[in-house]
Write a structure and sequence with these properties.
five-stranded parallel β-sheet, 5 strands
Length: about 180
Amino acid sequence: MRILGLPGSLRAASINAMLLRATVRLAPPEIEVSIFRGLGDLPLFNPDLEASRPGNVAAFHRAVAEADALLFASPEYAHGVTGTIKNALDWLVGFEPFANKIVAVLNASPRAHHADDALRETLRTMAAVIVEPASITIPLLGAGLDEAALVATSSIAGAVREALRAIQLAVASRQGSLTAQFPLS
């Protein structure tokens, strides 16, 4: 199973990107987690460009289409989602493989609830399937932990692994229901 991580911050020291990197390291062998590192390279969304998508938009679309699920981790800016995440989502609005995509939202700061709520509302509006048991808040802001410490901290590692299992169950359930609806024979 493949999960694509989408970090909402372009900062090198982003705790959200660090949480996604730790998730890559904590994933069991049957779950491949990768991080899309080109969100900051996407041009500002322009419907005029949709017909002849720029190469980096096409790569983003390909990565989203190939993923079984998406995992968002984004900070809050001025009580909202970052421009990085908003622009990425705008590029996915008319992208058919995104509809009904299984998604989860990691929140690295309990006080970032405005952005978390806004991101979830946008994802619901775009017909994504939010896996609530996998959409968790891990209070990292001000904790002073690095990536290795995140992986080594049992409460954090356990929460991340449980979130990954919840995504895995949602994907397996979706695939099972599709198989039941459309048998191969």
